[in-house]
Amino acid sequence: MEELQDALEDAQYVNAINLDEGPRPITAWEMPCDEEMTRWNAALMKEWTDSPDMDQLPEPFTYEWMMHSSLGFYLFATYIKETSHDYLQINFIEELLRWRYLRGQSRGSKLKRIYEQYLLPCPRDELTKQPIRPPLLTIEEVDLECTYVKPPISKEELRQLALEHMDDSCRKSAIGFHGRCYDSLMNVLEDYLSRESQAETVEISLDGNTATEDGGEDGEGSTGNGDDQQDESDDRNDDDDGDNESISSNHSTSAMSQSKLAGRALSRVPKEIFAEIEMIVLECIRLRHFDDFKKSGEWKKFINYLWHRDKKISDEDFFLMRVLGRGGFGLVTACKKGTTGTLYAMKVMNKKRIKAKKSVQLALNERACLASVDSPFVVNLKYSFQTKDDLYLILDLMTGGDLSFHLSQRGRFPKEDCLYYASRIMLGLQALHDKNYVYRDLKPENLLLAEDGRVRITDLGLATQVTPTLHGAAGTRGYWAPEMLRRNEKGKRMNYDQRVDWFSYGCVVAEMICGCNPFRSENALKFGLSKASSKEKALDYATLHMEPSFESKKFTATSTDLCRKLLQKDPKQRLGSNGCEEIMAHPWFKDLDWEMIISDRAKPPFEPLKDINAASQSEIGTFAEDRNALKLSDEDQDVYEDWDWTSQKVFCSEVIEMLIYERDTGKPLIPLTVAGSCCCAIS
């Protein structure tokens, strides 16, 4: 019977991850009655008034508060477009928000379109002489929101500015904007446009060839010309560039810098350049539409969804599908959120096992780190909650298996794959370092692929905040940095910081290139056993004293140089010691389009099969019931007092994805069941 149950769960899981039909919720939304809504309103207001940052946060239920939410912005923008022909101003705001997400050349191109479509007068039809308005745009993103910034002037002053600067009959701009702020903005933008136009004609002679600049940002635009194509049948993993490869030739550096400075004019326009006009346009939109919106069903829909967002979540909100793996404290299982149909991974950790292994602080560290890091290069936390016996983490579902599995299948990766994975892993580590965390467990087994091949760092159980006294080996032997193993003259472990992660990163990069970690190889074992009595001590000795060799059949001069600099024994000399920008600038990455990588738009080089990229459920096994398990005291439970957490961004994204699906297909999803007559149904 167990085998049959496993087969059914396997089939359910494969079917779920292969469906491309949009959200598939399986339970109705539970919505509040009058009493519940009143309590929630009061709690929300109290939370705001008690906040030490109250003056810098929008007051609940106001226009600014609604626009600060991606869900509120989506519903309000949709309402305007469905009930009014006056869509240009809200589309202008949407385009500004999109522009701020972009980098490099694409950022400059978007800004030019904004200028031409919204800030210049509408062109007129030659026959009818009627203005040709920019097309109506719909929101396709799930994370578009207006970041709240408290206006530097009073509400009344802002209102007067909006009345003075906005005029539908004005022909100076498509959005009806004019006046002092408009003139000032246009002068600045036209100056940038003039420099951009001049840069387009600049050509540089580089080593006898003519090249046109690409307009990307420093270190972020592609510098490749497409000539260094990888021949996957070649036995070499890297392009044979030799020792003379560099970012640019010395004799042309000055000319290139001058041209790039000019050619990047539009991509370098500061984000705050639109602050004043955006503030005024948003106020105009408020004056025209917000009061009517608050009387509409869309406003009630928004409020009801937010009540549900703040409602306590539990294991009953998720439906289990298939066990994917087993950790030290419990199982990782694929699951589906009932109300939205979104697929996630559920990591369960048993409190008694955590206590038995004296790992309470590790569990708390993992939860805190996951909640603080929001990066497309790290597996993100969506929800966390608990029961009397277990802790739950709801995470991104990565269906493509881990990098170790694919490396074992393919032997080693071609350069294109190595570049893609190495760049994303680097940015994931930097995201952790930016929050003052050190990861400490980087290895291919902890690098998971999504269904489309995007790789992310996972398993933050050993991540911890960096302190002046941080010491002790943590992670996996052979990936440890030397400073984790060193002791001072008194025999005590040495302190370390985030630089240990760059050593582990060097091990992983080398392993992707040649198929083997330099410090877990036969050479390392042989080297270590000459001085150590056990395999474990041998690997440690090799880490401390061996200088790895990089065979020319698999490594080129540039890849060898990169790995040597990452595997420096001295952390002060290690590449990355001053941040990932040092690594990004290394010649091995010279052909990488950093703009596409950083914006998460680069297409993965390899797409895993849409199948079960995990061990069978029988191999994973279960945890045997321990009749002599420790008892949990009130103090043991109190330590998890702040465990419960919901990502507001994730919740809104789930709902918006549903709403976009309904809008695009005309197919309503599961309707609401309303507990009281006071609340509208969300449909």
UniProtKB/TrEMBL annotation:
**GO MF assignments:** ATP binding; protein serine/threonine kinase activity
| Stretches assigned to the AGC-kinase C-terminal domain | 590-655
- Location of the RGS domain: 62-119
Pfam families for the chain: Pkinase (PF00069)
Entry keyword annotation includes Transcription: no
Point to the regions of Acidic residues compositional bias.
Answer: 228-244
Q: Please indicate if the UniProt record lists Transcription regulation as a keyword.
A: no
Q: Which top-rank group of organisms is this from?
A: Eukaryota
Enumerate the residue ranges of region (Disordered).
204-261
Domain Protein kinase: where?
318-589
InterPro entries in alphabetical order: AGC-kinase_C, Kinase-like_dom_sf, Prot_kinase_dom, Protein_kinase_ATP_BS, RGS, RGS_sf, RGS_subdomain_2, Ser/Thr_kinase_AS
Tell me which residues bind ATP.
347
Per UniProt, the ranges with Polar residues bias are: 247-260
Ordered alphabetically, the record's keywords are:
ATP-binding, Kinase, Nucleotide-binding, Serine/threonine-protein kinase, Transferase
PANTHER family recorded for this chain? G PROTEIN-COUPLED RECEPTOR KINASE (PTHR24355:SF18), G PROTEIN-COUPLED RECEPTOR KINASE/RIBOSOMAL PROTEIN S6 KINASE (PTHR24355)
Quote the protein name from its UniProt record.
Answer: Beta-adrenergic-receptor kinase
Q: What is the lineage of its organism?
A: Eukaryota, Sar, Stramenopiles, Ochrophyta, Bacillariophyta
